[in-house]
Design brief:
It is a single chain. Helix 1 crosses helix 3 (39-51) and helix 2 crosses helix 3 (39-51). Strand 3 (75-80) and strand 4 form a beta hairpin. It contains five helices and five strands, in the order H-H-H-E-E-E-E-H-E-H. The chain has helices spanning 3-15, 23-30, 39-51, 95-105, 121-126; strands at residues 55-58, 66-69, 75-80, 86-90, 115-118. By secondary structure, the chain is of the alpha+beta class.
Amino acid sequence: MRASSVEKIILEIFEKGNDHLTSLQVHERIRGRLPAVNSSTVYRALERLVKAGKVSISDMGTGAAVYELLTEGMHHHLVCQVCGSVQTLEHERVADFFQAIEKDHQFKIVTNHLILFGICENCRRRDGKV
């Protein structure tokens, strides 16, 4: 089995709307099409896709790194630590912050997926902490 065929199928899985998948979840989905593929092959393919800038890897507080297809430019997430809800944050909302950090610290940011943890409005309302 060729690495490029595994990568192609992984990209197809993400293109079907399966975002924020762990390598194990990707492996489970790919086995239907490539029964002989093992989890280490899937992991290495995901790492190549990350290095190629086609997929991002993030820690969203679930205990395992998650991967997501990078198709519509950079974006980030707000993750509720109570209910686990995820909100998308457009890059334009943090672009000035990134630029200020780079300028002030002479530091080139390579993060392509910022995750901010907190408590969403619904959970704060429910707990009376709005």
